[in-house]
Amino acid sequence: MGRFEPTLLSLSERRHEYDRRRFVAYLDLLGFSDAVCLAESSNDELDRVNRTVEYLRQTQQQFCNTRGYGAPCFTVLSDSVLMSIDAADDLLKLTNAVGGLAQDMVHFGFIVRGGITSGALVHDDRVCYGPAFIRAYELESKTAIWPRIVVDGNMLNHLVPNAIPESLFHVDLDGMHKLDYLRKGFPCASNLFRSYCHLLQCAYDLPLRHLRNKLSPDVRAEKIYQKLEWFLRYVQGCAKDAKIQLSEPVK
């Protein structure tokens, strides 16, 4: 057999494709890798992992089927998810999709950390590459630190006044803007009060169950506990603003 020679676009066509500006979100499901490892010996964890993967698979298929209506591109990368949308489209489609995914992950027992930015990106059902991908990954892995979804400041300065309500974001103590996806006023938050209470209760239970079992003194475990405590304060703040009384989870 001869060597495979791919059919290439012309340089101008490749430049046009590569330079297309997109909004992109890179999300990491905190704790998913550990759950995958535990699934080898725990049927409960195996069931949780399988249900999460099936949810992601169905979500990816749904977005693929509705791409013609402006749904974001959606790619699952092990314990991470990448979403993007053309910058000429409505950014709310991306922020709502990201917030909705983060809310749904709470029900599966996972907290999301991520970064949202914009820039040159090639993203379809087969490949994804470009500087915007790298920037979004760096925001998630190096800047976010806590279990939050941070938004690139440069993108906010140029786009928020004209594209999306500033109320979707909250400025943290370190000056970083995060997507305020658990807040009552967030577009993806249920208008039904009981459903919203259930969401916050699940989000409240998630870190508490782990913090009650603080046994390991090693550095990695301590960093995990700090992230859980940060998320717990975020949930408590949302509940206080919504005047919701959270119940202590059953031991």
The number of distinct structural domains comes to 2
Largest sheet: 7 strands, mixed
Cα gyration radius (Å): 19 Å
Q: Report the CATH architecture of the largest domain.
A: 2-Layer Sandwich
Mean pLDDT: 86
Estimated helix fraction:
40-55%
Q: Please, could you describe this protein's structure?
A:
It is a single chain. Helix content is 49%, strand content 18%. With 251 residues, it is α+β, with helices and mostly antiparallel strands. The chain folds into 2 domains: 19-179, Nucleotide cyclase, GGDEF domain (Alpha-Beta Plaits, 2-Layer Sandwich), CATH 3.30.70.1230; 193-241. It has a 7-stranded mixed β-sheet. A hairpin with a 4-residue loop joins strand 5 (122-123) and strand 6. The longest helix is centred in the first third of the chain and has 23 residues, at 43-65.
In short, what is this structure?
With 251 residues, this protein is α+β, with helices and mostly antiparallel strands. It has helices spanning 11-18, 32-38, 43-65, 91-107, 131-144, 153-163, 193-211, 219-241; strands spanning 21-30, 73-77, 80-86, 111-120, 122-123, 128-129, 149-151, 169-171, 177-179.
Give the secondary structure arrangement, pairings included.
Layout: H1 11-18, E1 21-30, H2 32-38, H3 43-65, E2 73-77, E3 80-86, H4 91-107, E4 111-120, E5 122-123, E6 128-129, H5 131-144, E7 149-151, H6 153-163, E8 169-171, E9 177-179, H7 193-211, H8 219-241
Helix pairs in contact: 2-3, 7-8
